[in-house]
């Protein structure tokens, strides 16, 4: 068998083993409100009350109060941004591995993976007509450069892909710079203009594309993020502009003004470089092969310092294990903290980990990731079946003293790195938190410690520690039965180009 | 008499004439809630109901709906920022004078005044220790430059002037860069660190100073603004940094880290240059010498486009007159729109105007300025006595259909340019509006059209037009009786260095 064939065969194995999990989506959601756990299971969960209180109090009022914030601030102040492929990211990984060793976690190690290495050199843009002005720009990850002397071209503003494809518009695009002035309709919909905008514009002959920063709120704030060139299209330079400038360009076009821009965008795409997912464990006392995984990603974009995205998620994952260890709490199953590398360029660290650990996935009892903010914690968003949801709800009652008892069912998966897992095979949870403003700061210079609050981070660490510890320690295995399974996500485990990429390199 | 003596004599004249206005502050504020206007005055005010409704409807629902926003957008898109001393500001003034002429306003003209001309060339800063990072900076108006090669020095972070003056701190300042990490306690208190920070640091031998941007909220946003060197201190370069970076530097210092910075700040202070306050009128039908003045300032800082500060205020002032004119409404008294130049460097346009028009101030019936935002209008904040307040309240009842009927008494003056007038001699009003977020955007790149809303601007124009027109048209003169008069403000009219400056130059 060739490497890839063998790989797909390995991937298919759990499918056969786990085919029972594939079911149709049951529309009756009422059942999620009524739990019917056995009295023995309830009794067992309730027996953790004292332990849960000890964990919460130690973190929120005791020895570790303020600790997550303090440690994270020290970390981001020391390293700043941690862009995929940079030595600075590797230094920050060394630092975390050192911390985990200092906590006496078990099996502390980095797991190698190749990751993209794209960097921003010089970038600036000017509005030449109808008036002269600087136009702040922020290149999108993996963008190619303009020629050194830049590109001067007319701009054409569109509000949607549909508008771009209108006959009179699409025929006018050739040789121009396409400016996407899309409406914010939520991240999932809007981010398409960032990730696919250059490709769609290139297909029509555009020489570059600019995208309104993907955010619901702006203070003339630039937001970067990954973009992908579709196979076969001519790669064109692409960057974000502010919402304010996109709106201004729209007004100018609506007035009939000719808009002329000059773009000088210079980036370097280096060969993939070696990085590591950082791992530390508390090995299980009686079921060491079974794993409850807590995680966040350590890499960030190159603007801001990645305090929120995803310093907070990485640090509550590391710190909850460090505290459980210090409290002498060893669960039956292994608790594993993974600090993913290179989430930002496309879950690349995860993809490598998934490839290496695919044989082990059947032993993954529950996977957790926090990558949508560590604002005021409300509870857990979970991807699990009815019984699993009921267990989570029961556990979360312990979090009532810090108002974090909400269990919210996700119709999809949860997390970012763990999303394909939790959409298909493996039950999991992410931190439910008051993250209404998450995308205000996301991928922007405003992602700093100021976004975070020490008390909120304490509470988030407490939620993380209590939930992961109890699930890892229950005598009963967390149920894998699911209402639905996302076949596309399952296919992603096999066909993700990043998985192939990493696999081929290793 | 020398010029200055003569000037002060002229200044003193209204003091004698108006000495009845000087009274002690009456603590009983209950009376402000009870009005006792004569029935004839009430009847006269009520007779404006149809006119008020016509004005409001024409602006909010009719022909001029969206007009203020549309015209302001066209203006800021055309000119961008309008910094004191620049040709671009003068071009924008020409544009406004042209607009006023096109509206057939009376007596349209510019009134010359000399204004400061300070510009930003290059500026960048680096954190050298404890780690290497770029530190975004934004120089403060009138700052001197560093040497071309920059300044490298240790930084010392203080949270207040009191802390700066502690013995162990003040003795350590010499040769260092002082970083003000002041708490936001409202603009009036906090802005002291921007305006006086360099002087206070220089007195102790600092080589430069940085100030946390003066704002209650930041998205890593830089805010500039004017600063003043105290007479006799060595002028040192000074700039703002983000709240986030100020907090980071504080944490570094608190950890015991040595902080080393490099600053390259390059600015040019040119000689004062000629500018103009833009004036347009609807000359009064029977009392043309009496003036109701509406105003805002046309200049802005060089970041953002000054849409909010103070494009909105300038445009509701111009547009309300343009609409009254188009509606054929000529009041008994003269309605005068003044678009102040060079407010930002220290009310310089006003100071020149005040010097030229001091002889006329006794004829100023009521003065209005909007310079604290044109967000959702709520009514009028006024500086007037009990009877004046009651008249305003009665007029504002007409604004009930747009929920802008609140009359709020100001214990000080109102407005910025008109503040010394309204603290002392002349009754006046500013736009009361839902401006809780004003200082989020103030003096920053985020001051753009996106801050404003077309409906809000319509309503603001309607409030401005209704209030100014009725006060200008009432048969009874708006009462000048005041509860208090601010002697300091009155002195300012005589002693303001800008007044002297302008006076000496003219």
From TrEMBL, chains A, B:
The keyword Hydrolase belongs to this UniProt entry's keyword annotation: yes
Main location as per UniProt: endoplasmic reticulum
Localization, UniProt: Endoplasmic reticulum; Golgi apparatus; Lysosome; Secreted
InterPro entries the UniProt entry points to: CPQ (IPR039866), Peptidase_M28 (IPR007484)
Example GO biological process: peptide catabolic process
Family designation: Belongs to the peptidase M28 family.
Protein name (record): Carboxypeptidase Q
UniProt source species: Rhynchophorus ferrugineus (Red palm weevil)
């Amino acid at each position: 068998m060739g490497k890839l064939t063998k790989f797909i065969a390995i991937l298919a194995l759990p499918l056969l083993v786990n085919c029972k999990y594939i079911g149709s989506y049951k529309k009756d959601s009422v059942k999620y409100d009524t739990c019917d756990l056995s009295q023995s299971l309830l009794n067992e969960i309730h027996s953790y009350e004292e332990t849960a209180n000890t964990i919460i109090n130690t973190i929120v009022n005791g020895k570790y109060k303020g600790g997550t914030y303090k440690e994270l601030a020290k970390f981001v102040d020391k390293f700043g941004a941690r862009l995929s492929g940079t030595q600075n990211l590797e230094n920050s990984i060394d630092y975390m591995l050192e911390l985990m060793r200092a906590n006496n976690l078990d099996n502390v190690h980095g797991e190698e993976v190749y990751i993209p290495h794209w960097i921003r050199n010089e970038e600036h843009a000017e509005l030449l007509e109808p008036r002269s002005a600087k136009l702040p720009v922020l290149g999108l990850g993996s963008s190619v450069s303009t020629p050194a002397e830049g590109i001067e071209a007319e701009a054409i503003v569109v509000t949607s892909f549909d508008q771009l494809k209108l006959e009179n518009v699409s025929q006018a695009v050739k040789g121009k710079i396409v400016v996407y002035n899309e409406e914010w309709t939520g991240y999932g919909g809007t981010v398409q203009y960032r990730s696919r905008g250059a490709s769609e514009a290139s297909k029509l002959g555009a020489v570059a594309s600019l995208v309104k920063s993907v955010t619901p709120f702006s203070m003339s704030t630039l937001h970067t993020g990954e973009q992908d060139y579709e196979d076969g299209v001519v790669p064109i330079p692409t960057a974000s502009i502010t919402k304010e400038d996109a709106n201004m360009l729209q007004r100018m076009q609506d007035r009939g003004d000719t808009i002329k821009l000059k773009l000088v965008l210079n980036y370097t795409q280096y060969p993939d470089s070696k990085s590591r997912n950082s791992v530390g464990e508390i090995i299980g006392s009686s079921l060491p092969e079974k794993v409850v995984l807590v995680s966040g990603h350590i890499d960030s974009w190159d603007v801001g310092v990645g305090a929120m995205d995803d310093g907070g998620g990485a640090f509550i994952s590391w710190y909850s294990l460090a505290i459980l260890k210090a409290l002498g709490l060893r669960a039956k199953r292994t608790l594993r903290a993974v600090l993913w590398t290179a989430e930002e360029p496309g879950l690349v660290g995860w993809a490598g980990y998934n490839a290496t650990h695919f044989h082990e996935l059947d032993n993954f009892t529950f996977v957790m990731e926090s990558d949508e903010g560590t604002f005021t914690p409300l509870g857990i968003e979970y991807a699990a079946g009815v019984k699993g949801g009921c267990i989570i709800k029961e556990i979360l009652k312990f979090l009532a003293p810090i108002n974090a008892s909400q269990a919210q069912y996700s119709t999809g998966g949860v997390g970012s790195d763990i999303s394909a897992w939790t959409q298909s095979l493996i039950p999991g949870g992410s931190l439910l938190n008051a993250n209404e403003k998450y995308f205000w700061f996301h991928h922007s210079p405003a992602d700093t410690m100021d976004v975070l609050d020490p008390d909120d981070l304490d509470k988030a660490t407490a939620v993380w520690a209590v939930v992961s510890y109890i699930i890892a320690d229950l005598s009963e295995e967390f149920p894998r039965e699911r209402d639905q399974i996302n076949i596309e996500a399952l296919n992603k485990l096999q066909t993700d180009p990043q998985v192939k990429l990493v696999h081929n390199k290793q």
